[in-house]
Design goal:
- The protein is α/β, with parallel strands linked by helices and about 425 residues long.
- The strands form five sheets. Strands 10-2-1-14-21-20 form a six-stranded mixed sheet, with helices on both faces. Strands 4, 15, 17, 18 and 19 form a five-stranded mixed sheet that branches.
- Helix 1 runs parallel beside helix 9, helix 1 runs parallel beside helix 12 and helix 5 packs across helix 9.
- The radius of gyration is 21 Å and the shape is globular.
- The two termini are about 35 Å apart.
């Protein structure tokens, strides 16, 4: 839909969120420039586990999690690892994170996540069609598995939240799991299938295709590192980059985990932390599950992709500057090998990326209350690929002067 007042808009960040936003703004008739220091999709979006999950409505912090953290921290192969040198810096964030795990607060966050993630397939559709990559999405369902009924019972609140949001869950017994995914070892007693979920078989290829479509349609893509802004009485008027200043009319900050510093320069302080995630992508696994599988007890995902089998997840808190610890990725591979008999680890790649997380598991989406030419789209945590399409759609509505199709109050930048 064309907008009544086209703008010249600069989008900072060409991950999936920034690239999708640039595409939606372009569809509205704006003149859009996309600025990224690497090639599109090469940073965090490159290593996404690939889930497209309309029913992903459970925040990271949930009731009872505080009781699990000591056990996780004591396990060097556990789903959470904090580097001791980084603990003093991240401790205030962790306290705020745990305060968000109250049952009443989790229910509020869940409703906001439902509004954001529920329309993900529909919001992606015009972008995929325009880029000619509808084949990258597989809406074949996702499988959530537990070793025991007791394990699934511990997740009952999350299951309630998914059902309350209108999602279908088909509970499975051990035999039904084996029939659905015979590649898995017979170690899971129960679980559930979410048939309306799916996955993207090439997240990096998706961003690359959307960026190429954006350029074909007249968009400008610049490879530059953004360092700050030249400010005036009405907001930023210049973008400061490693290749010199650029004039700025309207700006969208969609720089993922690097958005915090840029946002701070504009007068907004947000508690943005990197949940460093790891993956192993096995090029010739020998055996491949048909569906995206979540062995819930291990807190990671197993996804069949065009380049092989991807095993990704865990959280490492060590900031943006520390080097990767790829043993975290190898642990994922070894665990997957126990769960998938015959899985070969002869040839694989390892990766680490920075998932941008706020304590409440919600991104920042919408306008700056200080400056009329500044908008935000960052902090999607573990759900960047999932939340990107509706974020882009809604932000285009706001910038185009139309009423947003979802309530942006839970996502405002000054909520902290």
């Amino acid at each position: 839909m064309a907008t009544a007042s086209p703008r010249k808009i600069t989008v900072i960040g060409a991950g999936i969120v920034g690239t999708a936003t640039a595409c939606y703004l372009q569809r509205d008739g704006h003149s859009v420039t996309l600025v990224e220091r690497e090639e599109p999709g090469k940073m965090t979006s490159f290593g996404n586990a690939g889930g497209i999950s309309p029913g992903s409505v459970v925040p990271i912090a949930t009731p009872g999690m505080i009781n699990q953290i000591p056990k996780w921290l004591a396990d060097p192969e556990g789903p959470l690892f904090v580097r001791l040198t980084y603990l003093p810096q991240v401790l205030p964030w962790l306290v705020r994170f745990l305060l968000e795990s109250r049952r009443s607060r989790v229910a509020e966050i869940s409703r906001a996540l439902s509004a954001l993630n529920g329309p993900t397939f529909e919001a992606y559709q015009p972008l995929l069609k325009e880029a000619g990559v509808e084949n990258l999405f597989h809406r074949t369902g996702q499988l959530f598995l537990y070793h025991s009924a007791e394990g699934m019972q511990k997740d009952s609140f999350g299951i309630e939240l998914r059902r309350a949001a209108g999602n279908r869950l088909d509970v499975l017994n051990k035999d039904e799991i084996r029939q659905l995914e015979p590649a898995l070892a017979p170690v899971f007693d129960t679980g559930f299938l979410m048939p309306d979920h799916g996955h993207c078989k090439d997240p990096f290829g998706l961003v690359q295709a959307l960026a190429a479509s954006f350029v074909r349609n007249g968009g400008t893509l610049l490879k530059r590192e953004v360092r700050g802004f030249g400010m005036g009485p009405n907001g930023p008027h210049t973008l400061v980059t490693d290749q010199g200043p650029m004039p700025l009319e309207t700006v969208v900050i969609a720089a993922g985990a690097w958005s915090g510093e840029l946002t701070k320069q504009l007068g907004h302080s947000v508690p943005l932390e990197s949940h460093r995630g790891y993956h192993m992508t096995i090029e010739d696994p020998g055996v491949m599950p048909r569906l995206m599988v979540f062995p819930v007890d291990y807190k990671f995902a197993i996804t069949p992709m065009s380049m092989g089998l991807r095993v990704g997840g865990t959280v490492e808190l060590a900031g943006l500057k520390a080097g990767p610890n790829y043993e975290r990725a190898r642990v994922l591979g070894r665990t997957a090998q126990r769960l998938i008999p015959g899985l070969r680890l002869d040839k694989y790649t390892e990766w680490m990326g920075h998932r941008p997380c706020h304590p409440d598991s919600l991104p920042v989406i919408g306008p700056s209350p200080r400056w009329g030419n500044v908008f935000f789209a960052f902090g999607h945590g573990h759900q960047g690929l999932l939340g990107a399409s509706n974020t882009a759609k809604v932000l285009a509505e706001v910038i185009g002067g139309r009423a947003p199709s979802m309530d942006l109050t839970p996502f405002r930048v000054d909520r902290f």
